Structure formats: structure tokens, C-alpha cells
Amino acid sequence: METTKIASFDRASELKAFDERKTGVKGLVDAGISQIPRIFHHSSVELADPKPLPSELLHLKTIPTIDLGGRVFEDAIEGIKEAAAKWGFFQVINHGVSLDILEKMKDGVRDFHEQPPEVRKESYSRDFSRKFMYLSNFDLYTAPAANWRDTFYCYMHGSRSSKTRGSARDLDVMMEYSKQVMILGEFLFELLSEALGLNPNHLKDMDCLKGLRMLCHYFPPCPEPDLTFGTSQHSDSSFLTILLPDQIKGLQVLREGYWFDVPHVPGALIINIGDLLQAFITNDKFISLGHRVLANRATRARVSVACFFTTHVKANPRVYGPIKELVSEENPSKYRETTVTNYATYFNGKGLGGTSALLHFKV
Length: 363
Hints:
Blueprint: H1 2-7, H2 11-21, H3 24-30, H4 44-47, E1 65-67, H5 73-86, E2 89-93, H6 99-113, H7 117-121, E3 132-135, E4 150-157, H8 168-195, H9 202-205, E5 212-219, E6 229-234, E7 240-245, E8 251-255, E9 258-261, E10 269-273, H10 275-280, E11 291-294, E12 302-309, E13 319-320, E14 338-339, H11 340-350
Parallel strand pairs: 1-2
Antiparallel strand pairs: 2-10, 3-4, 4-5, 5-12, 6-11, 7-10, 7-12, 8-9, 8-11, 13-14
């Protein structure tokens, strides 16, 4: 039945028509639709209700929250070491990023996506060499199903020199936020280095801080949230990700075959290990867990800002592979060496959903 339904419409034409409108999912909502287009329908297997958590895992509850107040290295290192090895995710409070800037960033994301469609269209593109671009679903033409989400991309550090579009106020906020995120990122890489038993500058010296890509997501209310996702299951193709969420829930993390809701913690930032750190540095000592965002059931749009530490935007010839300090005869390299660009190219070509892109690089 499901196969017949999928085959009964011209998917390629519908994808093209949606893309060429250049107004994203927000445009569909503004048009007052009550049923989502079939290009957004996910398979019944993906959408099935998650398995109930067994009693032996009830104690896990959700990802840990780590207090970075006072920059007490010893306490933070132990907390991050355990979280990175077991969850790949944790939240941080007292992280040093201005709470005022956090709120202004979220307001700015809403402001951009809620501009008149003719204004948004000026920035709509699929040219990923641009420093700033707005689009819906980077993998629109390759993923099995589209997600109920629009995004604008900004390359904030280590990127090409093309001009960024936006209001002067919003650009000032973005620049200040990215500056503070870079400071937090440097501190987190120091803690992660020490958690691995390495010199505090080890990950920094491996160029983990040389690129910052900011994705500002907008998840409009969905009229049929049981048929689609805000973001399909995936892991991040970064070294590290810093996520600014709003108060509307929806993010879930997959651990041991079960989905865990990530609760809203006021003022917190969500940190997660990316594929590059898991495979091509730590040899699976730290993990990059799958995660997803449920379609928005609220009456107001959900927004988030994901900052990815990765260098694939700018040509980086450096070859990465599990570092010698974490490899031994008993624990040999589990991944073949590659460049960040090669990994990102494979990841982006594959699109979200399905199996992890890391499987392609397994030894």
C-alpha cells in the first residue's frame, strides 16, 4: 500500500516546484495548507512510536547537564569525559555566553524567517560556496523524504570572503554570538583534550577550531506532525556542535536503540560530539550519537542555532585518522584516514537519514 502511494505521484516534479517557489516550508504554512505535501511524508518505520524504555535503562533519563561556572577544570573534565563517552551529548550552564545574546540570536532567527517572502527569496540558493544562504532542506533532492524545516547558513570563521546579507543589527548580534561561541569552543576543546589524557591544546593544534558554520533553523508548526520530522535521524559531520535551542521541545537522542527527549534547561547550550571527533581523532572513545527533531506540534515556530566546528568550507589538505595516543595493538584504528572535505562531500551527498556516514570509512 505504501509503495503504491509513493509511486503514484511525480516526486521529482513536486520537489522542483517546491524548491523553485523559494519560500520554504514557511511559505506552505503562510498559504494555509492543512495537509503536508507528499514529499514530506516519511516511512511508517521511521515514524513508528518509540519502544518504551526498559526498567534497566530508566535511570538514564536524559543527557547530563554540566556546570562550567568558575572554570573548575577537574570537575568539568570528569563530567565531560563520561558524557562524551556514553552519550556524546551534554548541556552546559554558566558557559560564559551572554544570556542577552542568546535571546537576541533567537529573536534574530525568527525575524529573518518571518520576513515577507519576497525578501527571503533574495537570499534563497543552493550554492554552498556562499557565505550566507537561505534554503529548505540541504538534501532536498537526495534524502528519501524532506523535513519540515527551513534554514539559513552563515560561515562565520575560516570561510570565504563573500558578503553576508542581513540587517546591521542582526549581523552585529551574529558576529558577537559567534565570537563568544568560539571562546566557549576553545575551552571545550581544552576540556575534551584533557579528558582524553592529552595536552590541553592538542585538539586546537589539530585545527578543530579553524572553521565555524552556523545554521539557523526555523521549524514552523506542522499541520500533520505524525507524518514527518523537523530533522531526520542523523549524526553531525563536525568535530563538535554547540546548539542554542528555544523552549519548544523536539530534540531527541538515540542511545542503545531508545529515543531520549532532551529537556529545556533555561540558559543552557547543548553540546554534542561530531563524527570527525568520534572517528578520525578518538577512534570511538567519544561517540557521535544519532539524533532527530520531531515535527513541531506547538502553535508557534520553534527555532534553534547550531554552530558546527568544521573546516570543510575552506580547503583543508590535512589528513585525519585516529590519533596514535588512542591507538594500540589491542585497540587498532577503526577508520581509514581521510580529509574533512572528503568526509563532508560524502556526508552531504548521502543526506540525512539512514545509516551513519561513518560506516563508509570503517576499516
